[in-house]
């Protein structure tokens, strides 16, 4: 028997109704991953004063860290410029943490290359670093930065107890002496030959280190301008002899330490009379984002 058009429409509507309902039914939301939280405590032995800076948390798979340590205990977890995504990094701004005080860093809130809760399950070596001068992204860890011991943490399918790290030591507090120290890679024989020149250059140099009022007001924290004044051999401190003054800055990647090495070679050339005696002003133009080149701007 033939059906009328209205009857056909009604039949089709009834047959399609369950399908339409199934398509329109919203999918159940996926359960959100629990954020990875870490407690970081300031050891009073590392600092007896309030500290501020950018708190960085580094995480690398234990097997990777172990292979990089070449059979020695893992004492440092850091980024790798040749494999930037190999190490996960989380960060937060830290203001006035008191000795013995503890903060909780959410390693999902600001992280690269992925929130810590999305890292693959497994064992990870974790280390905390407080970047005092906010310049890690330019020059890495530096004098005054606070670091923790490396802690191994296992990431499973769900977050467990909140791991704890302790900022237990400061790196190279004596910036001046560190800048004039010969790199560890210098062979011992060469070191013995260069050390007298290094000592003489250091004795004839004076550190520049003052807090810029304008930049400090802009950033809300002390901003130091640094460099060296290098005097020639036999410098006449009584002022009876005048000297020309040469100003020197560096390129990208340079800083306080590279200018000290420039002072070493320059002093040696003056001592050997390869260049005339002059006063050298060696200026550090590094900043957290690169070389500011003394451009007149509110932030640099």
Helices and strands in order:
Blueprint (H helix, E strand, L loop, with lengths): L4 H20 L12 E6 L8 E11 H7 L19 E10 L4 E5 L4 E2 L9 E10 L4 H4 L6 E3 L2 E5 L8 E7 L4 H5 L8 H16 L1 E7 L1 H7 L4 E7 L14 E4 L7 H16 L7 E5 L2 E2 L2 E2 L9
Parallel strand pairs: 1-9, 12-13
Antiparallel strand pairs: 1-4, 2-3, 2-6, 3-5, 6-7, 6-8, 7-9, 10-11, 11-13, 14-15
Helix pairs in contact: 5-7
Task: Walk me through this protein's architecture.
The longest helix is centred in the N-terminal third of the chain and has 20 residues, at 5-24. The chain is built from seven helices and 15 strands. It is elongated, with a radius of gyration of 30 Å. Mean pLDDT is 85; it is low at 1-24. α5 crosses α7. By secondary structure, it is α+β, with helices and mostly antiparallel strands. Strands 1, 2, 3, 4, 5, 6, 7, 8 and 9 form a nine-stranded mixed beta sheet that branches. Strands 10-11-13-12 form a four-stranded mixed beta sheet.
Summarize the structure.
The protein is of the alpha+beta class and 300 residues long.
Descriptive labels:
300 residues, alpha+beta, nine-stranded mixed beta sheet, 7 helices, disordered N terminus
Radius of gyration: 30 Å
Average pLDDT for all residues? 85
SSE class: alpha+beta
Series of secondary-structure elements, N-terminal to C-terminal = HEEHEEEEHEEEHHEHEEHEEE
């Amino acid at each position: 028997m033939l059906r009328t058009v209205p009857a056909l429409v009604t039949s089709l509507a009834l047959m399609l109704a369950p399908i339409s309902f199934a398509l329109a039914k919203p999918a159940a939301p996926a359960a959100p991953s629990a954020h990875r939280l870490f407690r970081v405590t300031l050891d009073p032995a590392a600092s007896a004063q309030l500290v501020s800076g950018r708190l960085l948390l580094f995480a690398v798979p234990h097997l990777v860290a172990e292979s990089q340590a070449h059979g020695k205990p893992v004492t440092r977890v850091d980024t790798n410029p040749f494999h930037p995504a190999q190490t996960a990094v989380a960060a937060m701004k830290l203001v006035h943490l008191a000795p013995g005080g503890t903060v909780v860093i959410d390693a999902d809130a600001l992280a690269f290359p992925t929130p810590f809760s999305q890292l693959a399950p497994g064992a990870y070596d974790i280390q905390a670093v407080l970047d005092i001068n906010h310049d890690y992204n330019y020059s890495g860890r530096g004098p005054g930065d606070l670091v923790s011991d490396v802690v191994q943490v296992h990431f499973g399918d769900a977050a467990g107890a909140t791991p704890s790290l302790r900022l237990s030591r400061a790196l190279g507090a004596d910036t001046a002496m560190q800048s004039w120290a010969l790199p560890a890679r210098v062979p011992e024989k060469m070191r013995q030959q260069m050390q007298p020149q290094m000592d003489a250059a250091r004795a004839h140099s004076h550190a520049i280190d003052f807090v810029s009022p304008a930049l400090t007001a802009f950033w809300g924290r002390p901003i130091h301008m640094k460099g060296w004044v290098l005097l020639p051999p036999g410098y006449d401190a009584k002022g009876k002899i005048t000297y020309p003054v040469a100003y020197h800055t560096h390129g990208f990647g340079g800083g306080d330490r590279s200018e000290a090495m420039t002072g070493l070679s320059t002093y040696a050339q003056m001592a050997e009379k390869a260049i005339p005696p002059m006063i050298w002003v060696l200026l550090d133009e590094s900043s957290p984002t690169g070389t500011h080149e003394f451009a007149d701007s509110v932030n640099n």
